[in-house]
Structures are given as structure tokens and as C-alpha cells.
Inverse folding.
């Protein structure tokens, strides 16, 4: 399964009462997760695996601890360094 890592744009802080506001996500990385089997789940399917992926992302050259990232997978997604404004 393909895993994509996207850098989340900073919030503008604007309210969205009746319309959305376009946001830009920059893809900074992608890699493949192993195919899950009953004996070996994919990394994204366990908390331990997602923690390993987060550590892997944090070790990459593009990683900036002041920025937020979205890790996407068809079955699971999580963020790194994101907090709602």
C-alpha cells in the first residue's frame, strides 16, 4: 500500500461560515507499506508501526519540527506536529 507524506499549510485563521478556503498540501515523501497478512499486519495498521513511521519521517531531510505533516494511507492516517488553531 502506498503511504504519502504531505506538509500541511499553515492556517490562515479565517472563519469559514458558508464556503471553504483552498489549502495547499505539498507532498514531501511517499513509500510503500508491506502488504498486510493475518500473521504480519502492515506498519500503518498498528500503533507501534505508526510510531515507527513517525520516527522515520522525523529523520528525513525534509522534516522541519516547526511544520505539520499528514501521513495518508487508504486505511489509516495520522498527523505529526499538528494542533488545531
Amino acid at each position: 500500500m502506498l503511504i504519502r507524506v504531505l506538509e500541511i499549510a499553515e492556517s490562515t485563521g479565517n472563519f469559514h461560515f458558508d464556503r471553504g478556503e483552498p489549502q495547499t498540501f505539498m507532498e514531501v515523501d511517499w513509500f510503500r507499506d508491506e502488504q498486510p497478512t493475518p500473521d504480519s499486519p502492515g506498519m500503518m495498521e498498528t500503533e507501534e508501526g505508526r510510531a515507527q513511521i513517525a520516527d522515520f519521517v522525523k529523520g528525513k531531510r525534509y522534516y522541519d519540527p516547526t511544520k505539520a505533516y499528514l501521513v495518508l494511507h487508504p486505511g489509516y492516517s495520522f498527523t505529526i506536529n499538528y494542533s488545531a488553531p
Q: What stands out?
A: The two ends are 31 Å apart (CA to CA). The CA atoms of residues 34 and 83 lie 29 Å apart.
